[in-house]
């Protein structure tokens, strides 16, 4: 069984082709700078054509979709109704869902006879209970406007939790884990008996940990202050919080390797703030889970920075926690989800 995985960003397209009998990667390609002035690839249609995929040899295509809202708690076969719902959710993930939808539509037009399946970043967190996902806002903000915590990086948290279970030689349904996806975007997840019960990202991927360019948790009144007293527009506040905050806001650098090597006081303070936030989340999730079988690090920073892992785990209350490093593979997780759909008869 051959499964292609497409991850379409606003100006990029990641592609992997798997032989799912062995999980072997047959082809892999990353196309960047789509539509930019100096790029030869003007749109996603051209990007897909440049992959030279033989659609006759592919059983299905799996698409990463960042936001599935409340409607999609699992992966689904893409129909026109599914496309409409993904489009309706664009305001909840404006940087991602539009690009994801573009990838779906382009590949459907190029391969109309191939099954297309949507795999949602938010789906893994659909197991969270109301006490975890509701904000303390007037309830109609949720009931009428769907304002709630959704969580993201679900395919990564799901994949590494199952790999961690294999390393520990235990069934995932009997494990309590704290998984940390640490990259330019970062999130942490509390997993009880194999299911997500809480996670740091919320209504959008802005909430939670200090990230490369995102602020993570702040007092929401700061947003009002910046608009009312500093005269910033909505777009300016949005850009400040998402693109000019986090590590890059604190020390003008978002490459953790460079920050670690720097002797600049501001760089070291930025690291301390980031690590402190991670420790606070781990501590709070220990309180929710009780017994924790392991803390699992993944993502570019989590997998590769022994320094960050060491500093995070220095907290006194973590001394008895087991630490694992698991390389994430979101594309393989998406391909596995596609196989499940095919085995269920395309439902």
Task: Summarize the topology.
Blueprint: E1 2-8, E2 13-19, E3 24-31, H1 44-50, E4 60-65, E5 76-77, H2 80-88, H3 97-110, E6 115-120, H4 130-133, H5 140-143, H6 154-168, E7 176-182, E8 186-192, E9 195-199, H7 221-228, H8 234-243, H9 246-251, H10 256-261, H11 265-289, E10 294-298, H12 299-304, H13 306-312, E11 323-325, H14 330-343
Helix pairs in contact: 1-3, 6-14
Shape: globular
The secondary structure category is alpha/beta
Computed over alpha carbons, the radius of gyration is 20 Å
Biggest sheet layout: 6 strands, mixed
The helix fraction, in percent, is: 25-40%
Which CATH architecture of the largest domain? 2-Layer Sandwich
Distance between the termini: 17 Å
Count of DSSP E strands? 11
Number of domains: 2
Highest CATH level, the class of the largest domain: Alpha Beta
Number of helices: 14
Instruction: Using the coordinates shown, work out and report the CATH topology of the largest domain.
Output: Nucleotidyltransferase, domain 5
Features:
14 helices, 6-stranded mixed sheet, 5-stranded mixed sheet, 11 strands, alpha/beta, Nucleotidyltransferase, domain 5, 2 domains, 347 residues
Can you offer a commentary on this structure?
By secondary structure, this protein is α/β, with parallel strands linked by helices. It folds into 2 domains: 2-120, Nucleotidyltransferase, domain 5; 170-330, ATPase, nucleotide binding domain (Nucleotidyltransferase, domain 5), CATH 3.30.420. Helix content is 39%, strand content 18%. It contains 14 helices and 11 strands. A 6-stranded mixed sheet has the order 3-2-1-4-6-5, with helices on both faces. Strands 9-8-7-10-11 form a 5-stranded mixed sheet, sandwiched between helices. Strand 8 and strand 9 (195-199) form a beta hairpin. The mean pLDDT is 94.
């Amino acid at each position: 069984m051959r499964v292609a995985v497409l991850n379409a960003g606003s100006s990029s397209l990641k592609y992997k082709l798997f032989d799912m009998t062995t999980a072997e990667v047959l082809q892999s390609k990353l196309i960047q700078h789509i539509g930019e002035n100096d790029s030869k690839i003007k749109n996603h249609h051209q990007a897909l054509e440049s992959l030279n995929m033989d659609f006759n040899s592919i059983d299905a295509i799996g698409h990463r979709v960042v936001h599935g809202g409340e409607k999609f708690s699992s992966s689904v076969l893409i129909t026109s109704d599914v496309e409409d719902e993904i489009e309706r959710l664009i305001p909840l993930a404006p940087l991602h869902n539009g690009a994801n939808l573009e990838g779906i539509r382009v590949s459907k037009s190029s391969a109309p006879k191939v099954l297309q399946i949507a795999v949602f970043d938010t789906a893994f967190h659909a197991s969270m209970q109301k006490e975890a996902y509701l904000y303390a806002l007037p309830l109609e903000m949720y009931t009428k406007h769907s304002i709630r915590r959704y969580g993201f990086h679900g395919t990564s948290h799901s994949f590494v939790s199952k790999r961690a279970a294999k390393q520990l030689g235990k069934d995932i349904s009997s494990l309590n884990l704290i998984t940390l996806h640490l990259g330019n975007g970062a999130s942490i997840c509390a997993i009880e008996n194999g299911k997500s019960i809480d996670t740091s990202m919320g209504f959008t991927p802005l909430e939670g940990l200090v990230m490369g360019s995102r602020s993570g948790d702040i007092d929401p009144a700061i947003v009002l202050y910046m608009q009312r007293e500093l005269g910033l527009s909505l777009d300016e506040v949005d850009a400040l919080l998402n693109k000019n905050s986090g590590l890059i806001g604190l020390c003008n650098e978002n490459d953790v390797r460079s920050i670690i090597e720097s002797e600049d006081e501001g760089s070291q303070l930025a690291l301390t703030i980031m690590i402190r936030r991670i420790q606070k989340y781990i501590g709070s999730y220990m309180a929710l889970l009780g017994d924790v079988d392991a803390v699992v690090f993944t993502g570019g920073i989590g997998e590769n920075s022994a320094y960050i892992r060491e500093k995070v785990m220095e907290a006194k209350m973590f001394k008895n926690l087991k630490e694992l490093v698991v390389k994430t593979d979101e594309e393989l997780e998406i391909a596995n989800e596609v196989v499940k759909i095919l085995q269920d008869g395309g439902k």
